[in-house]
């Protein structure tokens, strides 16, 4: 493949893994699952999300800044969303929350993370495929693969 067609397989695979956990968290929040279930899933989500966000910040967003006319604005907005996701994850994982408060925190987290993933897949990734140099895309894909994030 020329790099543009293959990009960004690793991130999309990680998005699928994140979305699978979000679906489980959403079910717990809506069916009033146990707090232990929610905490276990939040821990699993953190183990995937933390390295995923770090990889995007280290490799994907610099590529967007270099390759797209609005790349700096897109990258800045995404980094702010990452900061919000980290705060929401910390909030949902707070041991002082009541089960009702945790369900609400999880619901907000799920909405924000899904919107972020959708934005990347529907806007950022296609823009990079269209506007990025194929060798830059291949290099970024290799770096993402070498970053050792889950997925």
Could you explain the architecture of this structure?
Helix content is 82%, strand content 0%. It has five helices and no strands. The chain has 151 residues and is mostly helical. The radius of gyration is 16 Å and the shape is elongated.
Question: Could you give a short description of this structure?
Answer:
The protein is mainly α.
What distinguishing features does this structure have?
151 residues, mainly alpha, 5 helices, 0% strand
Architecture blueprint of SSEs:
Blueprint: H1 9-31, H2 35-67, H3 71-92, H4 99-131, H5 134-146
Helix pairs in contact: 1-2, 1-4, 2-3, 2-4, 2-5, 3-4
Low-confidence stretches: none
Q: Structural class of the helices, strands and pairings?
A: mainly alpha
Provide mean pLDDT, rounded. 89
What share of residues are in beta strands? under 5%
Radius of gyration: 16 Å
Large-scale geometry: elongated
């Amino acid at each position: 493949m020329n790099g543009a067609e293959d990009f960004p397989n690793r991130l999309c695979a990680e998005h699928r893994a994140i979305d699978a956990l979000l679906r489980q968290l959403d079910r717990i929040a809506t069916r009033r699952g146990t707090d232990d279930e929610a905490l276990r899933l939040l821990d699993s989500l953190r183990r995937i999300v933390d390295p995923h966000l770090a990889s995007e910040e280290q490799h994907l967003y610099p590529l967007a800044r270099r390759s797209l006319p609005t790349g700096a604005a897109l990258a800045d907005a995404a980094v702010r969303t990452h900061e919000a996701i980290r705060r929401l994850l910390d909030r949902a994982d707070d041991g002082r929350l009541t089960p009702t408060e945790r369900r609400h925190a999880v619901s907000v987290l799920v909405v924000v993370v899904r919107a972020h993933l959708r934005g990347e897949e529907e806007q950022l990734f296609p823009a990079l495929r269209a506007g990025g140099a194929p060798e830059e895309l291949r290099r970024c894909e290799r770096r993402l693969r070498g970053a050792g994030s889950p997925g």
